[in-house]
Design goal:
Transmembrane segments: 12-31, 207-230
Domain FAD-binding FR-type: 339-474
Structural class: alpha+beta
Shape: elongated
Organism: Thalassotalea castellviae
Largest sheet: 6 strands, antiparallel
Strand content: 25-35%
Pfam family, one: NAD_binding_1
Number of strands: 27
Radius of gyration: 38 Å
CATH topology of the largest domain: Rossmann fold
Keywords: FAD, Flavoprotein, Membrane, Transmembrane, Transmembrane helix, Ubiquinone
CATH architecture of the largest domain: 3-Layer(aba) Sandwich
Helix content: 25-40%
Strand order of the largest sheet: 19-16-21-14-15-20
CATH class of the largest domain: Alpha Beta
CATH superfamily of the largest domain: Nucleotide-binding domain of ferredoxin-NADP reductase (FNR) module
């Protein structure tokens, strides 16, 4: 099934590109000037009148004897003179492979179309500037007329659109005119009919292969849909059922029986019973954290195959987010967190930058939650309507959103995870720094979670589970902390820094050495810069390295990317065994940094990262 899905996705890319080409070429066909597209800009459609006394024609039998064998013979006129056109090999159409001879109708002498005569014939059908640049005898394939299978003279005239007139070499027939207008139109005909080999026909191997790819796309899509249905991914809530499932912890100790609905996946169903499994992807099947062992075994999904070995799958290991309670009798939970579900009330929402907001929540009806700095929470985003531009956008920020077109859309319920941006040692609120994910070209919807949360009105509430403590400072360590982040990766790193400063003030001890490398695009994107400058001014052990990738001319600090500034200062940080690294930011930044650190000899145990992507 994994292979089918991969092939389906790549096939959809091929089909999608060709559909786009069809759309673009179709629009062009509706807008183009058909006279120009046919190459007829300088074509003359007047013909010379010819009067010839047929009584003077040589006897047909004599001509046939001299030019045998011939399939047919017929009179024709070239530049006002009479000839016999004898056909020796006849194709279905004139442009197909044919063999002709020309004989003077009055003398019976053989007539040959040379370059001089071809030029005169061409001028008869041409009404533009008369100067020529070249005359060539071309044999097929002929680029301007790919369907033409017979040799032809190409007469190139000197004009503003580079007109070429083609005269068939054996018959003297006008093949046609071509110019820059027609050649441009031919590009769109090629794209529309997938004639990438320039055969002049839509009955080509490319379109045949495309038909098979489209057939495969439909067939594999049907297989995928049936597979999802068999795995219970399509469920109507009205027809949902509930059943009891016996739970065990990883030591096979009974946790009792819970009632789960087969409308909700096992991960979200357990949360209704205050049982939280670790998950950073929100149930997308990508993080592989919500590991359970199911009995009897359910059919494995493609996500299961990614995160479990064949042996583990045979033992019943599955991802809770990918399965429902149907036919589940026993379930062993491999890793249960102490996170709980809470109702959060928004107390404050403010813009930090044009595209990032700080949200402050209070826990409804509960005492403040305690957690380690660097933790995150998973929000339950309800189904509803969204907008592409934030509501109540401050006037001074509107210029930054002018390129975003207003869009209203509906979205389904989902979950999204966000890191806490402040330590519980400095606030009793839950603080989040969230970047609003935009959709500038309507190719995808805006970020559902970030748009919903950043458009919440103060005083409104939302449910969230957590905090999940997976990224935190090592306890009782006095090693130098090196933090690296960019964008909204600021949140957990800020929390870690505030925690260390708070511990220093509470316990009246020296602050451990901290080096904070942070990257942003411009000065306006630097989050909490004043706060970190103040930390650095008041604490000799704190070092702040703000870095801008697209600074203004007035910027006096470091330029480039945060990981580059880290590498430049690496030797000044201290001995490698006395360093701990904490990373949070875009995946490319973290991958590049981890590779750099390992190349320098930093151990895996000294590198912690929060992959918010």
């Amino acid at each position: 099934m994994i292979l089918i899905r991969k092939i389906h996705k790549w096939a959809s890319v091929i089909v999608g590109i060709q559909f786009l080409l069809w759309l673009l070429s179709g629009i062009y066909f509706n807008l183009m000037d058909h006279t120009k597209a046919a190459g007829d800009t300088y074509r003359s459609h007047t013909h010379q009148q010819t009067e010839v006394n047929n009584n003077n024609f040589i006897d047909l039998k004599e001509v046939l004897i001299n030019f045998k064998p011939a399939i047919s013979i017929e009179p024709t006129y070239i530049l006002g003179k009479a000839y016999y056109l004898l056909t020796h090999q006849k194709g279905l159409y004139k442009n197909f492979k044919n063999r002709y001879s020309l004989a003077n109708a009055l003398t019976g002498d053989k007539m040959v179309i040379d370059s001089t005569l071809a030029l005169e014939i061409a001028k008869q059908s041409y009404n533009g500037p008369s100067d020529t640049s070249s005359i060539k005898l071309l044999h097929p394939p002929i680029e301007d007329f790919p369907k033409q299978k017979n040799a032809a003279w190409q007469i190139n005239f000197v004009n503003d659109i580079n007109t070429s007139v083609y005269i068939e070499a054996e018959s003297g027939r006008l093949v046609g005119h071509s110019d820059d207008h027609k050649r441009f139109a031919d590009i769109f005909f090629m794209l529309h009919f997938m004639d990438y080999a320039n055969e002049g026909s839509f009955n080509n191997i490319q379109i045949i292969l495309f038909a098979f790819i489209t057939l495969w796309l439909s067939f594999s899509g049907l297989i995928w849909t049936v597979d999802l249905g068999l795995r219970g991914q399509y469920r109507i809530k009205y027809f949902s059922k509930s059943q009891g499932v016996k739970l065990f912890d990883k030591n096979q100790k009974s946790m009792g029986t819970v009632i789960l609905s087969n409308h909700t996946n096992l991960l979200d169903g357990l949360i209704e019973h205050d049982i939280a499994l670790p998950s950073t992807c929100g149930g997308g099947g990508t993080c592989g954290r919500c590991r359970v062992m199911i009995n009897p075994m359910l059919k494995s999904t493609s996500a299961d195959h990614v995160h479990f070995s064949d042996k583990e799958l045979q033992q019943g290991y599955r991802l809770a987010c990918q399965h429902f309670s149907t036919d589940v009798e026993h379930m062993t939970l491999m890793d249960v967190t102490e996170a709980k579900k809470h109702t959060l009330v928004l107390s404050e929402s403010r813009f930090l930058t044009p595209f990032m907001k700080e949200l402050r929540f209070k826990v409804l009806g509960e005492v403040p939650i305690s957690y380690k700095a660097g933790a995150f929470m998973r929000f339950f985003i309800p189904a509803g309507k969204g907008v592409s531009i934030p509501l109540n956008l401050p006037e001074h920020l509107k210029a930054n959103w002018h390129h975003i077109e207003h869009l209203e859309y509906e979205h389904l319920a989902c979950t999204r995870s966000y890191s806490l941006a402040e330590s519980p040692l400095v606030t009793d609120e839950l603080v989040f720094t969230i970047k609003i994910q935009t959709a500038p070209q309507h190719k995808t919807l805006p970020g559902v979670g970030s748009s919903y949360l950043c458009n919440m009105a103060e005083g409104s509430s939302i449910e969230a589970i957590g905090p999940f403590e997976e990224f935190f400072a090592k306890k009782d360590s006095q090693k130098t902390m090196v933090l690296l982040g960019a964008g909204s990766g600021m949140a957990p790193l800020k929390s870690l820094i505030e925690e260390q400063v708070a511990i220093k003030n509470i316990e009246n001890i020296d602050l451990r050495n901290i080096h904070f490398f942070y990257g942003a695009r411009s000065e306006g994107d630097l989050l909490y810069a004043d706060e970190f400058y103040r930390f650095a001014e008041n604490n000799e052990s704190f070092h702040y390295y703000p870095t801008l990738s697209k600074p203004s001319d007035d910027w006096l600090g470091a330029t480039g990317y945060a990981q580059e500034i880290l590498s430049l200062n690496f030797e000044t940080l201290g001995h490698i065994d006395d360093l701990e690294f904490y990373l949070c930011g875009p995946k490319n930044m973290m991958t590049e940094t981890i590779n750099f650190l390992k190349a320098k000899g930093v151990k895996d145990s000294a590198i912690a990262f929060d992959d918010f992507t």
